Amino acid sequence: GGDVHYEPANPGAMFVVRLPKSRVIDFDLPLAQQTETVDASEEIFEEPAHARVLCVDDDDEVLRMYERILGGVGHEVTARSDGADVVTHLEEGHDYDVILLDVHMPGVSGLDIYAELHERWPQMAQRVVLATANANTQEVAELCQAHAIHVIEKPVRIGDLLECVQRRGYTDDV
Questions:
Q1: What proportions of the chain, in percent to the nearest 5, are helix, strand and coil?
Q2: By C-alpha distance, which of 76, 83, 90, 172 is closest to 130?
Q3: Phi first, then psi: what are they for 92, rounded to 5°?
Q4: What is the C-alpha separation between 60 and 130, in angstroms, rounded?
Q5: Residue 131 phi/psi, 5° resolution?
Q6: Tens-place pLDDT, residues 20-29
Q7: Is the backbone of residue 61 left (phi > 0), alpha (psi -120 to 50) or beta?
Q8: Cα angle 136, 56, 75; round to 5
Q9: What is the pLDDT of residues 135-146, one digit of tens each?
Q10: What pTM did the predictor assign?
Q11: How far apart (Å, rounded) are the C-alpha atoms in residues 113 and 100?
Q12: β-strand 150-153 against 52-56: which pairing, if any?
């Protein structure tokens, strides 16, 4: 639902996005069975979320989207665009409830970062969510099955992003 309206501007262009009322997300029901709606100004979750989320992606636009969406519902977001920087950042003692890794990045990939986490910080490796446009590759499928890693497909849908961060950030076994 909703619509997008284009308006020329000098210089550039302006896009106006109108969305219907947002849905209340009940994580125990399939999306098709969810019908309750709320005004967009109301909270999506019953309790405010305050997970510490590390987002790693080589696309700055994607990182800004993660920051707006996750920060907008109360998560503390740290964004990194360089995979090589992430391990150094974690060595400095930074800890996160959720680590969202882009699988395909130049240089140090999300899979490389996951391998390092698994070896050096196994507890933190359990908090990983992989983001990829190619979730069906054999390498990703085998890794996810062997280590119970959650995958979110790109392009990322807002509801999927919020759900996976909510679940990954607040499970007792993580």
A1: 35, 25, 40
A2: 83
A3: -75, 0
A4: 17
A5: -115, 125
A6: 554 444 444 4
A7: alpha
A8: 110
A9: 667 777 677 777
A10: 0.68
A11: 11
A12: unpaired
- As given in the structure block, the two tokens for residue 146 are 């062997």
> Which positions of the chain have pLDDT values less than 50?
22-32, 34, 37-48, 171-174
Sorted by sequence, the CB contacts under 8 Å of residue 117 that are 6+ apart come out as 90, 99, 124, 125, 128
Q: Containing H/E element for 8?
A: strand 3-8
Which of 12, 13, 105, 117 shows the shortest CA–CA distance to 60? 105
**Predicted pLDDT of residue 105:** 92
Length of the chain (residues): 174
Residues 43-60, buried b or exposed e (16+ Cβ, 10 A)?
ebeeeebebbbbbbbbee
d(CA 16, CA 6): 6
Measured in Å, how far apart are the chain's first and last C-alpha atoms? 36
Tokens of 158: 């807002």
Q: Quick check: 145 and 97 in contact, CB under 8 A? A: no
Identify the residue whose tokens are 């993580």: 174
Q: Which of 154, 127, 160, 153 is nearest to 44 (CA)?
A: 160
What's the token pair of residue 138? 């054999």
Tokens 């989320």 sit on residue: 53
* Rg (alpha carbons) of the chain, rounded to whole number: 17
CA distance 109 to 58: 9
Most distant CA pair in the chain, distance: 53
